[in-house]
Amino acid sequence: ENVLTQSPGTLSLSPGERATLSCRASQSVRNNHLAWYQQTPGQAPRLLIYGASSRATGIPDRFSGSGSGTDFTLTISRLEPEDFAVYYCQQYGSSEYTFGQGTKLDIK
Amino acid sequence: EVQLLESGGGLVQPGGSLRLSCAASGFTFISYAMTWVRQAPGKGLEWLSDVSASGTDTYYAVSVKGRFTISRDNSKNTLSLQVNSLRVEDTAVYYCARHFYGSGFSPFDYWGQGILVTVSS
User: Fold this and answer.
1) CB-based contact A21:A70 (threshold 8 Å)
2) For residue A31, what is the DSSP state?
3) Neighbour tally for A25: CB within 10 Å
4) Does B113 touch chain A (CB under 8 A)?
5) Which residues pair with B50 in a beta bridge?
């Protein structure tokens, strides 16, 4: 099983600031098959980024993904009020897909 | 518009069974692999099971293998998850989701709203 560890657990920032979220895998993620999801309370997750760096349809360009191998990053360039949520990374490069434990992005 | 609608959840005693269903619409169901993911209260996401577009190939997380069975009926655009020998720790919101590409090894681009399963005596 490829274990994904996200950091930090909670990130407290203000609207307009830049957010940097990290996801580290215990094994190299095959073909950089790494996705990021956003989840707000009571809602299903929403796909933001796939293939480590490709934005899903309709996702604003303030969201960007980077990284390869075992280290990946989600960056939100200028936080909007609706961006305060929980973010999960997921690897889908092996037949047992795994998620990170999540990073909660809080309003400071 | 792609829609996924889960049903079949509820309260069940430990050791009991449920059959969760997911009705799909707005896309060519037979062309996409499908998946189930759950989320325990206040916890993160856990992938459970995958089924190929044709239904011939299935995959399971180690934690549920042997207790959960995924299936699909492409004539009815329906995905199912039979959950047996339920434990208190299976209490969660269960989501069905669609794979981004027609095959597996792709992220999940559309999700249902989730259905709550509560295992308690």
Assistant:
1) no
2) G
3) 21
4) yes
5) B35, B59
Across the interface, whether the CB atoms of A92 and B111 are under 8 A apart is answered no
* Nearest residue, CB atoms, B61 vs list A96, A101, A102: A96
Please say whether the dihedral angle defined by the alpha carbons of residues A46, A38, A101 and A53, taken in this order, is positive or negative: positive
**How far is B98 from B107, CA to CA, in rounded Å?**
8
Q: Which two tokens stand for residue B86?
A: 């339920």
Q: What is the dihedral sign for C-alpha A13, A18, A21, A22?
A: negative
For A65-80, the pLDDT digits (tens) are 999 999 999 999 999 9
Q: What confidence tens digit (pLDDT) does each residue in A14-66 have?
A: 999 999 999 999 999 999 999 999 999 999 999 999 999 999 999 999 999 99
Rounded Cα distance between A80 and A65, Å, is 17
Distance CA B68, CA B60 (A): 8
How close A92 gets to chain B, by Cα (Å)?
Answer: 5
Q: Which chain B residue shows the shortest CA-CA distance from A36?
A: B107
Residue B67 CA to residue B80 CA, distance in Å, equals 14
